[in-house]
Amino acid sequence: MESGAGIANERLAVALKDPSCFGQFRNGSNPWMARYVYGLIFLFSNLLAWAARDYGRGASVTLEKLKVCAGKSDCSGAEGVLRVSLGCFIFYIIMFLSTVGTSKLHGRRDAWHSGWWTAKIALWISLTIITFLVPSAFFQIYGEIAHFGAGVFLLIQLISVISFIRWLNDCCQSEKNAARCHINVMLVATTSYVVCILGVILMYIWYTPEPSCLLNIFFITWTLVLLQLMTSVSLHPKVNAGFLTPGLMGLYVVFLCWCAIRSEPAGESCNRKAEASRRTDWLTIISFIVALLAIVIATFSTGIDSQCFQFRKGDTQDEDDVPYGYGFFHFVFATGAMYFAMLLIGWNTHHIIQKWTIDVGWTSAWVRIINEWLAVCVYLWMLVAPILLKIRRTAEPV
Q1: Confidence at residue 73, expressed as pLDDT on a 0 to 100 scale
Q2: In whole angstroms, how large is the CA radius of gyration of the chain?
Q3: What are phi and psi of 321, to 5 degrees?
Q4: C-beta separation of 284 from 34 below 8 A
Q5: What average pLDDT score do residues 9-21 get?
Q6: Are 8 and 87 in contact (CB under 8 A)?
Q7: Alpha carbon 329 to chain centroid distance?
């Protein structure tokens, strides 16, 4: 057993020392390198779904001959996105089921996660092709399930972002770093609040050109109220979380509010900026590419952040422990597959989106707004919950 472990360690050392990406891909024993390969597979799925939506309508003729589309004229539009999403979802669910619970390196499941790329790429391609042979009626059901899966992804991403902000604040307030980071914390917090106020002012200027734009006025004003609420709770003597966390959370909620208003469909008098989205110019294309890359990066960064969902803290990690949770990583990508489908079809399976646009429609706008409000609720609960639990424990009779 010891000799086998020694050989495995030597192979891992060789793989890690190989500077070339191809060499690490060939060795197939580096879990850190594996993350990027899975990210590339996810990116290709996004691009394929976009191509199926915007440029795959000609394929509907072939699918109709196979009696897959059931007489639908828009078979490879929104439905094409759902088909690619389903193939990607099944692939990552298979990876989740086959790697969940992996705790040690050099085992069979670790080797499956970090290697066997030819087999896994062939599996992903096969699943994607098979989904285009499934009857259309099934995707009405999958579309509804994808709403729930995308919501799960947003919740996981939300908790991950808040956990990172709290971790950063705790790190800066620790005895080891408090004196050294004091000025940096004040600069970051001040900059965050300035950007938040500037963002709110710009949204008032851009998205409330008329007094009749009551919905946008409500969205922006309520965002300002939530920023004040987070700051007040954070500075309460019993919480004492400082200015950094509400400042960074303020950036996050202002960004979500901006995304929500930007998601309002073109043609609305209160969203004149959206009028430009009707024209496919270089700025529209660049914005779409950036948004697509943002989906992949958000999924990737959330997938490797399994520690914020561990209930037992402070456990020591051995050298042969896996560097991140494989099962959680693949589960996030599986829900991310549903998420990118919802963004490409505007969270509406019957909605046809214009080319080079993403996450547009009233459903998308309300999803963003609800996500913003939920973010504030989760953040406030994470601040108040320890105090409430402490009070409850104190009040309980011994």
Answers
A1: 46
A2: 24
A3: -80, 150
A4: no
A5: 49
A6: no
A7: 12
